[in-house]
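HUMAN: I'm a chemist; might I ask for a sequence paired with its structure tokens?

ASSISTANT:
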Amino acid sequence: MNGGAPEALLDAAIAWRDQDPDAETRAELTTLVDAASAGSESAIAELRSRFDSRLVFGTAGLRGELAAGPNRMNRVLVTQAAAGLAAYLVEHFDSPSIVIGYDGRKNSSIFAQDTAEIMAGAGVRAILLPRMLPTPVLAFAVRHFDVSAGVMVTASHNPPNDNGYKVYLGGASHGSQIVSPADAEIEAHISKVATERTLDSLPRSAEYATADDAVVEEYIRRTVELAPATAAPLSYVYTAMHGVGLEVARRVFLAAGFAEPVLVATQVQPDPAFPTVAFPNPEEPGAMDLAYATATEAGAQLIIANDPDADRLAVAVPDSAEASGWRRLSGNEVGTLLGWRAAEKLSRTGRIGALAASVVSSPALRFIAARYDLPYSDTLTGFKWVSRVDDLAYGYEEALGYLVDPDKVRDKDGISAALDFLALVSELESAGSNLAEHQARFDAEFGAFASSQVSVRVTDTSVIGSTMARLRQTPPTVLGSLAVTSIDDFVNGLDDFAPSDILRISLQGGSRVIVRPSGTEPKLKVYIDAAVAEGPARLRRAAAQTIVDELEQAVRVLVA
């Protein structure tokens, strides 16, 4: 023992510090080691938090807080991850290659350059995108360059002090994100690097290529093809949520014939501090308040919002019933309308293509597929599953993720989805209609679907596991006034689904509640869905919402 601090813990921290090329995290560890050596309990606890475990490379890649140590995101961890991924690519591809992109978060460009140098040093042909760009451009680049893999350095919509490392695979995966068993195989290589090599022993090379703007131009050209030849004039607000979406999104909108967007001036430029929002996620309360104020002042018809890496899309419409004068459409509302639009396009062209949604998304898309005689698939949560559906024509997940052009990318794309939604509204305007009337026609044809979500954010992640265990041990028999008719547990796999920590509770009348831990944040998520297909069409939506409101109250008690 050394002043109360275990020697092994101090040795691990010192060894990590001594190979760390980042002056900021080296100084951070020096301060912690000195304090722990002097007996500081808080410093010892902090070192344990950072060194008793490490971030595991999974199907979401890596994501975590920026700080020193193996259980945080930093240059040592990212370099080890890059070396492990390089070893995997060398093992699985005859001529391994990779394209690397990055967003505007702190250290994103540094992590991307480290990755390029490690890849080149390992004999993997590496291409670095020319500057910070949206995730959809990187996903497109994997297919565009026909490479073995892609890495996007981003934490998407996570809190400001997070960063992440998302991996795509080419070849048989066609540019989709990694799934099992690739994640475990990559993690095994990373562990081998971490235990057997120091950073200075890993070969690096500056012999990597930097892509020019041609890849961006081609992404824009392919995306613009989604829009009609002419567009009715629209006044709309755009926010990039302090991320990297503005340049590419604006160029897409203008090239498609739409007017200049009205910009939320304080949110359009990349800023890793995300100063105007508590969480840079359009789903979070307050995140779109500035967009609402801007749109009200401009008299806009619509709000388009991307999250910081622009793979998600949020849409808001005027609504006098809301205090802000605006209502953000749910992911299910946008996803259903775009899914109906996709089915209509397929019907007009005579093409047969599959529709798909994550299992926690609204069942509405299944009804659309049935009406148009199209194949449909439910998938596990995450676009790594949605994008792999055979003959996919359209896919979405309720967490604001939409894939409207799977021939171009195999991941959610908030820019192409935004253009598709603008085109929908434009076409309705040209026909003398609007979104409200369009939604009413949907309700009449398919029934009205309502949904809600309850998210329980925790500081102690063990609470999530204990809540799931409690629900399995003592499952509910009634929620609100509705009896539980069945419960599907995905923990050991179900039908064609791989094992997953999901409970699906079916209720009297066809409503349902799904409970699962978030895959990217310390949250327990509960998804609530109800549908009403009987009675006057104009009353169906309110009736479905009444059921959802009742279930939401019951759910909050259930997971408290």
The longest strand covers residues 448-457. The radius of gyration is 24 Å. The CA atoms of residues 104 and 411 lie 20 Å apart.
